Structures are given as C-alpha cells and as structure tokens.
Amino acid sequence: MVDVIITGESGKLHAVYHKSELEAAPLAVVLSGSPRQKCHMNDRASYAMFRAFMDIGFSVVRFNYRGVNDSEGSIGTTSENMLDIATVIDWIQNKNEDSDKIWLAGHQLGAWYVLQAMMRRPEISGFALVSPDPSVSDFGFLSPRPNRGLLLQGANEGDEANAFGVHLTQILKKQAQIDLETIRVKNADANYSQAADLRQMYNDLKAYVGRENADDKLL
Fold first, then answer.
1. Which pLDDT band, with edges at 50, 70 and 90, does 215 fall under?
2. SS3 117
3. How do residues 142-162 score in pLDDT, each as one tens digit?
4. Model pLDDT, residue 136
5. Angle at Cα 121 formed by Cα 177 and Cα 41, nearest 5°?
6. Residue 219 belongs to what H/E stretch?
7. How many other CB atoms are found less than 10 A from the CB of residue 212?
8. Which ranges of 58-194 does DSSP label H, i.e. alpha helix?
9. Where are the domains of the chain?
C-alpha cells in the first residue's frame, strides 16, 4: 500500500491505496466516520475494513475527507464530503479501467455516506455498513435501487443502536428494495475497541465480501 494525493474540490486529499496483483480486480472505497468525532482513515475500524478488501484481492483506497489531518481545506458538510467521495471513486476507477466492480464500505457516519453514494452511482455492486450512526435518521434520499449488502454491528452498542439496525433494514427494503444481511459481533462496541472484536469484524466483512464477489462471478 502507498500514500497518494488526490486532487479534490477544496485541494489535496490524502489517501492510502493498494493495487491488487490480480488482473481486473474488483475495487473498493473505504469511508471513515465523522471527522468531528476524531474519525479518520487510519482509525481502527477504517484500517480493518481496508485490510479486509485488500486481503481478498481487491484494489482498495481509504482517504481523509477535506480538513482532516493532511487533507487540505476545512472540515466539510455532508454535501462537501460527498463531493470528496465522488472524486475518490472517480480516481480509483480511472486507475483501474479494466475493472467492472466497485464496493463501498463505511463506518458510523461513513455508512450513511455509503448509502447516499449508492443512490448516485449505479455502478456500485456491493456495500457494507459498519455500526451506522443511529442519530442520523434522514431517509429522504432513498429511492428504488435493488441491491444487497451487509450490516455489521457490535452486540454491545446498546438497545437503541440494535433497534435502529432493525429499523434501517426495514426502511432499506421498503424504500430502496435493498436487502441487508445483519451480523452482530459478540461483545463489541461501535468502535470495536478490543483487539478480538476488531479481528472478528474484519473476518466477518472479509467472509461476506468474498462470498458475494464469488457468487457474482457465477451469474
């Protein structure tokens, strides 16, 4: 993996990129949580998601939104961060023109960005939501977009978060025709603070993506 600089709307975006050795490898973009909660591309959850895709043969990129660490500009709004996400998606697709699959994975607020990006990018072939922020409840951007994906939550996130996961699954099915497979990581909190919990999240994500990507090849 290498550090790269991607030119964004408000200046340079700092990213880390891994290029797969596999021919026409599928792509992935990893989205971290809210910068206002000290989330960034090198936090535990973002790195674990990145490694899960990397270790099953994807070309994958993670990055800092504008105003975070070495990315230029000021911390952005949702619409500004969505512009950065679109820039990074375009960047990795341009670097891998022979690839026809791209996945998104996001943690906390990044999970919401995953869903919004899916509504705007019909080429997204798979996705994973890792402990989505339950305080965000705006579903107005959803429209029919038949797909399937993964919802990962820590079993110790609390009753409110787990109930929200059930609600999110129902809303996505009803409004967007999206089916979620749900996995709850035993003993984990929303940040996967313990090494064993982080490892389990990594293993569950890797297993799901590997299976779904393999199934897709048979179609």
1. low
2. helix
3. 899 888 999 999 999 988 898
4. 83
5. 105
6. none
7. 18
8. 78-95, 109-120, 159-171
9. 2-218
Sequence-separated contacts (24+) of 66-70 with Cβ below 8 Å:
66/8, 66/9, 66/10, 66/11, 66/13, 67/10, 67/35, 68/35, 68/40, 68/41, 69/14, 69/40, 70/12, 70/14
Fold topology of 2-218: Rossmann fold (3.40.50)
Average pLDDT estimate for 77-104: 95
Give CA–CA dist 61/128, Å, rounded: 15
Tokens of residue 129, six digits: 């939501």
Distances (CA, A) of 151 to 20, 73, 131, 166, 202: 25, 32, 7, 10, 13
Nearest-10 crossing angle of helices 195-218, 44-54: 40
Can you read off the two tokens belonging to residue 157?
């996130």
Q: Is the pLDDT of residue 219 over 70?
A: no
Are the CB atoms for 188 and 182 separated by under 8 Å?
Answer: no
pTM of the model: 0.94
Residue 207's nearest CA partner among 53, 104, 1 is 53
AA identity, residue 52: A
Measuring CA to CA, which residue among 148, 142, 146 is closest to residue 117? Answer: 142
